[in-house]
Amino acid sequence: MQATAAIVIFVCAYVLIASEKVHRTAVALGGAGLMLLLHVTDAHGAFFSAESGIDWNVIFLLLGMMVIVSVLRRTGVFEYVAIWAAKRARGRPYRLMVMLIVLTASASALLDNVTTVLLIAPVTFLVCERLALAPEPYLIAEVMASNIGGTATLVGDPPNIIIASRGGLSFNDFLVHLAPLIVVLIVVFCLLCRRLFRSAFRYDPDLAAEIMELEEREAITDRRLLAQGLGVLAIVIAAFVLHPVLHYEPSVVALLGAGLLVAATKVTTEEALSEVEWSTLVFFAGLFVMVGGLVETGVIGDVSRAAADATEGRLGLAAMVLLWASAALSAIVDNIPYVATMSPIVADLVQQHPGGDGHVLWWALALGADLGGNATAIGASANVVVLGIAARNGTPISFWRFTRYGLVVTFVTVALSTPYLWLRYL
């Protein structure tokens, strides 16, 4: 009965979010409220459970990085980077997109993808404004690049951290096994964007000439604040990368960095918090509770086990089913709770194949969950964040517009991952 209620609530909420007739934050809060009202989950499960509750690490990581970005925005550094990027691209729209894709994917391999898009999005709005370009295609391309690039390392995408912990995998394991494929996927993605967003590449030679005459250093308005902000950001990034050594969660690092920056600079608390995407944070909280209801009632676990049982112990078939099933399910639910639910099942399957052969299942899970997050607007945390930023800046991206491109990108990248896994491991 409760499983049925959880499915009905989640499906109805998903339809409302996709229809965009009701604000997604209101839908998420309403769905979460119904889950609690009908005892599908309870206060402990919603707020304190590591398996089915709100992922406070994600919430506070976002909050801390939003505060840091808010302070940095006041220095003019984003205008500097925007002018620099436009000049290096010589005002050519497609060349600019490729540059932003490569920059985003590279940064996402060292940072988590949510942090990366928080830093890149302000630059995108500014450079598109300078060149009179619609920012939506660039934002969509960047968030997809962040999800692809983040797959390459242990710290690049939150699901990878869960997989590494459960599977006993190291930072170097991800680099050796996934990074070569991700490089290929980024190249293919750049070529694919040429086709997907071809109508957005309108070159204006006059605007390009104006850009080339600008001096990016003049955009910096507060050098002291910039030095302080970049110093704190560098420490935060270093702590992210050194997580396996320091053992500080990214959320703790981000909050400490935000607190230090506000305390050490002339920026007031009110100013630092004024640009926080509160509606996005609340949407995440509601979404986590709804997905947690599916976890609590065993719906996601049942679906995952059914896919695993269908393989009948055949490693090759198990890897392929896991890859494509993970991509499909991560398109519907956030990939963080999905991987948290699926990882114990994969661990059992890996133990059935001694000698290290079963590790291909971990790579199949990582690729499916991370790349599948591109399929829909709520498939990955970075997607939700970018849509929230776009709406705040007056250029909303609809659920279906994102999903129309996301389904194509997901299918192509997962399809290319299939022969990679098969030929290298099977």
TrEMBL record:
Membrane topology: Multi-pass membrane protein
Transmembrane parts of this sequence: 54-72, 93-111, 174-193, 225-246, 281-303, 315-340, 360-390, 402-423
A GO CC term assigned to this protein in UniProt: plasma membrane
Citrate transporter-like domain residues: 14-368
Signal peptide: none
Recorded GO MF terms: arsenite transmembrane transporter activity
Subcellular location field: Cell membrane
Keyword Transport: yes
Matches recorded under Pfam families: CitMHS (PF03600)
Swiss-Prot/TrEMBL keywords: Cell membrane, Membrane, Transmembrane, Transmembrane helix, Transport
Similarity field: Belongs to the CitM (TC 2.A.11) transporter family.
Official protein name in the record: Citrate transporter-like domain-containing protein
Protein source organism: Actinomadura bangladeshensis
